[in-house]
Amino acid sequence: MKILITGSNGLLGQKLVALLQPKPDVTLVATSRGANKLAALHPDLRFVPLDVADAAQVRRVLAHERPTHVIHTAAMTNVDECELNRTACWEQNVTAVAHLVEVCAALDIHLTHLSTDFIFSGDAGPLDEEAVPAPVNFYGESKVAAEQLVRASAGRWAIARTVLVYGVAHEYGRTNIVLWVRDSLRAGKPIKVVADQWRTPTLAEDLAEGCWLLARHSAQGIYHLSGDDLLTPHAMALQVADFFGLDKALIERVDASTFSQPARRPARTGFRIDKARRDLGYAPHSFAEGINIVSRQCE
Ligand SMILES: NC(=O)C1=CN([C@@H]2O[C@H](COP(=O)(O)OP(=O)(O)OC[C@H]3O[C@@H](n4cnc5c(N)ncnc54)[C@H](OP(=O)(O)O)[C@@H]3O)[C@@H](O)[C@H]2O)C=CC1
Ligand SMILES: Cc1cn([C@H]2C[C@H](O)[C@@H](COP(=O)(O)OP(=O)(O)O[C@H]3O[C@@H](C)C(=O)[C@@H](O)[C@H]3O)O2)c(=O)[nH]c1=O
């Protein structure tokens, strides 16, 4: 099988390259906007520049590469930036998906599309695949619209929804909950962490494995691929501090009454992953194991 991934410079993209590149029965094509960040790590990686918001590039690259599967990870993932720059958010997260859906259906390419718990209101969680979307921020709205395009596709598709992904990436501009807590406490910096949001945080390597399982089986439908521990960010922060032996007094427990971000966050999400366990054999690490794995990758 020939797998083309979009957003290969991103956190999930980098884990997919690390997972798929060594597989003898997979021909891998990594694509992303801008220069390839993985050339030094994977010198024999086939990399093709692809801005998925450009319809002509999508058509040209997919027609030339002729993958059997696309794993679409590229997106604008800064939720606050999406709230403030809605045009760019819609371009990257919706218009781009319209191009991919059109070409994948025309060329009979199986499309795995990445989606999020942020399509939900956060009124009740953890959620299974039957839950009804009701987003509370613009990023969530864009990802609902993207799912609707994929679900209306005439082609073969799977939607992989995930939650609060954490891990270590190379030359990576963004942080995530585990690294942000560890690095803040190591620097002696006090942090305010919410105790009224609920998530099932996801190790990036587990998400990559779940996406591989979907592609390998050319699975069809919606799958929740997250961790299985339902935790608040405050509880996560305490676990990170304990693991690395850092000062928990620097962690201030807050809630929505005193902590807010430019974009609203859904309060209670998190996913039930029974369907992925049953259908795919998906088996994520616990949050504690995930912190341990991250610690072994860090400088
Ligand atoms: N991270 C998380 O907690 C969660 C992520 N998800 C979803 O999973 C997917 C992967 O997330 P993650 O790996 O964390 O995201 P990252 O932000 O780490 O990576 C996204 C990558 O997509 C690239 N990109 C953005 N726009 C385009 C474009 N038009 N063409 C090509 N590449 C583009 C970015 O490149 P550049 O650096 O140039 O911007 C970036 O490298 C996304 O679809 C996201 O919505 C869902 C739930 C949780
Ligand atoms: C920055 C910050 C975050 N938090 C909490 C809020 C939130 O529950 C959690 C993560 O906050 P962040 O703003 O870093 O991440 P956030 O934008 O909430 O992460 C989201 O990213 C997109 C891509 C998704 O698809 C979602 O699943 C989710 O992972 O940590 C604090 O408690 N204090 C803080 O100072």
Automatic annotation (TrEMBL):
Pathway: Carbohydrate biosynthesis; dTDP-L-rhamnose biosynthesis. Its EC number is 1.1.1.133. Residues 1-292 form the RmlD-like substrate binding domain. It catalyses: dTDP-beta-L-rhamnose + NADP(+) = dTDP-4-dehydro-beta-L-rhamnose + NADPH + H(+). It comes from the Bacteria. Coiled coil: none annotated. It holds the Pfam family RmlD_sub_bind. Keywords: NADP, Oxidoreductase. Belongs to the dTDP-4-dehydrorhamnose reductase family. This is dTDP-4-dehydrorhamnose reductase.
